[in-house]
């Protein structure tokens, strides 16, 4: 993540991803890692990332849900714990976690070849 993006996430109260389709959602992970709560549509990737502790999911195209979620988050910013959000991302998507997962897949692939 570049320094400008990092700085903006750290200053922001909330990040909103109002998308029709996402394959994964790197920007969601980056925002959460910076302690910024996220509101996102259920558009393919964020459903596996966002929890009650770091944000809210809304249905694609549902403007009422989106507006309500933004109001809720802004009214309850103190309920989000930036350090815990960062730790969640580091534990689930950090180098150590992902490296172990790649190693396990690689080792499994090697074992099925023999």
TrEMBL record:
- Which InterPro entries does this chain map to? Glyco_trans_1 (IPR001296)
One GO term in the molecular function aspect is: glycosyltransferase activity
Query: Residues in domain Glycosyl transferase family?
Result: 6-87
The superkingdom listed in its UniProt entry is: Archaea
Its protein name is Glycosyltransferase
């Amino acid at each position: 993540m570049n320094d400008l993006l990092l700085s903006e996430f750290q200053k922001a109260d909330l990040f909103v991803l109002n998308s029709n389709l996402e394959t994964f959602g790197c920007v969601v992970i980056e925002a959460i890692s910076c302690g910024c709560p996220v509101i996102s549509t259920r558009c393919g990737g964020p459903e596996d990332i966002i929890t009650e502790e770091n944000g809210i999911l809304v249905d694609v195209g549902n403007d009422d849900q989106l507006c309500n979620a933004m109001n809720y988050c802004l009214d309850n910013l103190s309920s989000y714990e930036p350090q815990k959000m960062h730790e969640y991302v580091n534990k689930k998507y950090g180098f150590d976690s992902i490296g172990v997962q790649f190693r396990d897949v690689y080792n499994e692939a090697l074992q099925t070849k023999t």
